[in-house]
Records
---
Amino acid sequence: MPGEVEFDRVARVVKLRPSKQLEAVKPGDRLLARVRDVQDKIAVLEALAKIDGTPLKYPRTGVVIARRGENLDNVVGVGDYAIVEVSSIYYGLITFDLYGHALGCIASLCSRCGSILEKRGNMLECGKCGSRERRKLALKYGSLNQFIEEMVRVLEGKDSG
Ligand SMILES: [Zn+2]
């Protein structure tokens, strides 16, 4: 099994670092991510592409931590696409920021019927079932639908191929 063994003196563990070169992801990078799971205080997102639309060769999973006193239910929803910024990487655990000015959801799915929600003032509304939901919205919410659709097509094509 090719790889590089390294001993981490601080954590006192031996790790096998894959020799396959992962694209560098570093704090400050902005990525397009899909929300996989949402709990009260933590959400799991999978970064799929760079902000210019180039898919990452290896999707990166990371977490968003709720701000003090906040519940993530009003910030992201499962299936949403969001622009996130890598805020830290600690022993391979990536933490994403979602609260910055240009960050947040760019396409959110209705939690009832799965349709893409439309922006109405500060809220999102489902054109199909009328559900009204709240999210942390990116400045460009809704303006990237075509981009998203294209990306979803590429990603789903990759799965079936
Ligand atoms: Zn709906």
Note: The longest helix spans residues 145-160.
---
Amino acid sequence: MNIDSKNRYGRVSKFLHWSMALLITWQLLKFADRISDGEHWVGQTLVP
Ligand code: HEM
């Protein structure tokens, strides 16, 4: 259950995977927010 088996990932791996997914999503949202606020070089140079 908690540890990985040959057939499926356990709770620990699933927790780490979804924590990673949350952090990456948060990071992308923050990135988009900074672009739309005009605080990021991507928005200032590439978007125009
Ligand atoms: C925004 C980030 C991510 C999202 C939204 C995401 C989402 C998902 C989803 C929906 C699945 C299918 C789950 C299932 O079938 O039960 C999956 C599987 C998987 N993900 Fe991610 N993931 C993310 C990041 C990552 C990263 C960074 C890695 C590796 C470094 C990773 C490795 C895997 C692997 C190996 C599987 C297959 C699991 C299996 O075979 O049961 N994922 N992911």
Note: DSSP finds two helices and no strands in the chain.
---
Amino acid sequence: MFHEYQAHDIAVYGGYLENDNELLECTSGGIATAISKYMLSLGGLVAGVSYSKDFYAAQYEIIDRESQLDRFKGSKYVEVQKGKIYRDVKDLLDRGKSVLFFGLPCSVAALNTFLGGEYDGLITCELVCQGPTSPKVHVEYIQYLEKNSAAKSLIFP
Ligand SMILES: Cc1cc2nc3c(=O)[nH]c(=O)nc-3n(C[C@H](O)[C@H](O)[C@H](O)COP(=O)(O)OP(=O)(O)OC[C@H]3O[C@@H](n4cnc5c(N)ncnc54)[C@H](O)[C@@H]3O)c2cc1C
């Protein structure tokens, strides 16, 4: 479902997934998931963010098939470990691949600075962001939950 709004020379598009089950797995309207599926269907790759197995951290990953998309769904409200992601994206672009890169505005700016030029194969998608949680606070919050709820035994039986 898509809506288009135009003001001056800026066009704004809004939309959401029509599949309710998938919509509920996403944070907002699932636009990120929809764009990712489209890129994968064209044979491109998607650079996005997943949680570590214990949820203590979030890191970048690059995927090339839809079956891997689930782990990108949902906002990870924490500063992400960048690892070698900028280098890996550059390597793929240099090899002629198409890459869809999701990031907070600062990460997209960092990627563009690292690349130092335009690449036809690159599409970037910036998330609306008021700022991520510090990793230290994130870890302390999970530890608090583990200590004070039954959730731990459910997640790590
Ligand atoms: C740190 C943070 C702050 C945010 N602040 C605001 C805000 O102030 N106001 C507001 O309206 N919305 C905020 N959001 C929500 C965000 O802008 C999007 O609306 C939402 O993540 C996209 O929902 P979706 O249903 O389209 O994505 P989904 O289909 O659920 O997919 C999530 C996408 O986000 C990517 N992603 C998840 N976490 C991160 C991360 N930490 N860094 C980079 N990419 C990530 C995944 O790779 C995936 O592509 C924030 C999100 C984050 C991660």
Note: Residues 135-148 form the longest helix (14 residues).
